[in-house]
Amino acid sequence: MPTGRSTPGRYAQMLARSATAAICAGPDNLILSWNSAAEQLFGFSAEQAIGKPLTIIMPERYHAAHEAGLARAVKSGKARLAGKAIEMLVRHADGHEIPVDLSLSMWDENGQPMFGALIRDITDRQAAKRRLEHLAHCDTLTSLPNRNALNARLEEAIARGSCALMLLDLDGFKDINDTLGHSVGDLLLADVARRIEGCVGDADMVARFGGDEFAIVLSDCSNPLRIDSLCRAIFESLATPFQINGKNVFVGTSIGIALAPKDASTVDQLLSRADLALYSAKAEHGAQRKYYLPTMHNRSEQRQRLGAELREALPQGQFVLHFQPQVSLEDKALLGVEALLRWKHPQFGLLHPDAFLSVLDDSVVAEDVGDWVIDEACRVASSWRSAGLGEVRMAVNLFAAQLRSPRLYGVIGEACRKHRIAPTQLEIEITENIVIKHNDEVATMLKRLKTLGVDIAFDDFGTGYASLSLLQRYPLDRLKIDRCFVEAIHRSDADAAIVDAVLQMARTLGLEVIAEGVETRELERVLRELGCKEAQGFLYGRAVAADEIVRLFAPVPQARVAAAR
Q1: In angstroms, rounded to a whole number, what is the distance separating the alpha carbons of residues 96 and 123?
Q2: Residue 425 in contact with residue 391, Cβ under 8 Å?
Q3: What CA–CA distance (Å, rounded) separates 34 from 16?
Q4: Could you tell me which residues are beta bridge partners of residue 119?
Q5: Which of 67, 303, 354, 483 is 20 to 30 A from 6 in CA distance terms?
Q6: What does each C-alpha distance from 216 to 167, 206, 238, 269 come to in angstroms?
Q7: Does 151 score more than 60 pLDDT?
Q8: pTM
Q9: Can you tell me the distance from the alpha carbon of 483 to that of 535, in angstroms, rounded to the nearest whole number?
């Protein structure tokens, strides 16, 4: 290796074949040794480098600091960075800068301080670090900032002053994911992200909060007019169908809004309160924007308290079943009943499902309560047979948790065996929304239940988003026409036409039909004219206790009839 002047012997041998760039310089800042790895890294040959100042490999902005540090080391005999590894930028011969890891050494040779450096290119390491930082703060699917970046931005915004946080949850996304597949869902999320970004200014942040939730941070903003204008822009932007794989896909959104410092003074508080507002918007069937109100916090606490009480209700025997008759429109004979859950609350008395079912459906005890309902319904059906009612069809509503569970098949089979009733006497009612949300799981479970002989009814038909193709996919026996279509058939040609269409379709598919919400003789008359054979509603009886069903419908013994004469 050319040296230009004498190279320190013990250092030269180590330098020559090292795969790491190695440089040696004297106290005058001139390069003494320059190995082949340094040639590769810096683009200077040994002839070009040796005898030149070390500053040829340093960006100009570092020259003064380097020369001052070298002077101090020569004077004191100690280098502050000796023995340490540091990351810094160095200069290539063509002028571009390279991130390197530099380890500095200092020693005495023939009474002169000598300096050596081992230098490694860490461009790949820096790129990997930047990639990790990007992944830590960026959502890979949408390329939006992720929750970590959102939290950091909220901290900054709250510290500066007022800001607004908008949480968005897509309406109907779960249905799209389940019916069209996750790949379509992913493409939709990416397209939604772009449309939302198009509505938001460059100074504000759009982030993906997780799943199908997005967040918008409006810095230095507490102006409801500006927020409402943005909400309208987002609603309008998402109203246009998305073109995905040649299909029109529709999705909406609900928006919850919280303001700092008006509603919250910390990131966690602001997120929590925007989430409460979002929940309130979703509860109103979506496509809404709601600002946080303190009363929302109270409702959330009430739901939590109700959930805790529901966990105790089953072991304490607080649940009961009431039964609403289902009759033949031809002769008013009792054909079946729908088992309806009631809660004998220790403080508030008998509660109808509207007061607790939404909380129970999301509770960890939903499946256990559902299993109890099946067992109790079978027990009652058995007792009615002993009372002379015969084999009354027993319709039972299922929780989504039961249809997701592999134990449902065994629970129904065991209940029927235990209470000695035929599975054909039992009818399972499912709603369209449950079918859509748990498409494949529901189909698999219902097909298993059909092997037992259990009937399957589609409840609230026509009120959800299910496609008619689902009627062929699932092993259904009966459609229940929702009361919203029935209640006006005597004065609305459109509603009558809908009910007539359902009846004709059901006949074609070999399905039975029962009309819900029949409350007047006029409604009954129109249903009979349309060809409906079964009905349920207040005209035939409200939901009552099991003993009352026996009193109303059990045949009168002949001895009692004769005595009455």
Answers
A1: 12
A2: yes
A3: 8
A4: 21, 102
A5: 67
A6: 7, 5, 15, 16
A7: yes
A8: 0.55
A9: 10
Q: Cis (ω within 30 of 0) for the bond into 27?
A: no
Query: What is the spatial distance between Cα 217 and Cα 102, in angstroms, rounded to a whole number?
Result: 41
C-alpha 498/C-alpha 532 separation (Å) is 13
Rounded Cα distance between 48 and 39, Å, is: 10
Q: Which of 386, 382, 363, 362 is nearest to 374 (CA)?
A: 382
Sign of CA dihedral 395, 400, 403, 407: negative
CA angle in degrees (0–180, nearest 5) for 524-529-533: 65
d(CA 457, CA 480): 7
Give residue 238's pLDDT band: very low, low, confident or very high (50, 70, 90): very high
Q: In 110-266, which residue ranges form alpha helices assigned H by DSSP? A: 123-137, 147-160, 173-180, 182-199, 224-239
550: exposed, middle or buried (Cβ count in 10 Å: 0-12, 13-18, 19+): middle
Banded pLDDT at 10 (limits 50, 70, 90): low
- CA separation (Å) from 21 to 18, 89, 97, 106? 7, 14, 16, 17
Q: Which helix (H) or strand (E) holds 106?
A: strand 97-109
Bridge partners for 88 per DSSP: 100
pLDDT at residue 560, as a whole number: 44
- The values of phi and psi at residue 102, to 5°, are -120, 125
Retrieve residue 206's tokens: 């759009």
Residues 6+ apart with CB under 8 A from 495: 485, 486, 487, 488, 489
Which residue type does 174 have?
K
At position 230, the amino acid (one-letter code) is L
Q: What strands lie across the sheet with 205-210, from one edge to the other? A: 205-210, 213-219, 163-171, 252-260, 289-291
What pLDDT sits at residue 513?
94
pLDDT bracket for residue 559 (50, 70, 90): very low
Tokens of 563: 């005595």
Return the C-alpha torsion angle 200, 201, 206, 212, nearest 10.
10
The H or E element that residue 386 is part of is helix 366-386
Strand partners, 478: 457, 512
When mean pLDDT is compared over 102-111, 295-304, 328-337, 398-407, the highest value belongs to: 328-337
Positive/negative CA dihedral, 296, 302, 304, 307: negative
C-alpha 308/C-alpha 315 separation (Å) is 13
Of the pLDDT bands very low, low, confident and very high (cuts 50, 70, 90), residue 563 is: very low
- Per DSSP, the residues of 273-294 read HHHHHHHHHHHTTSS-EEE--H
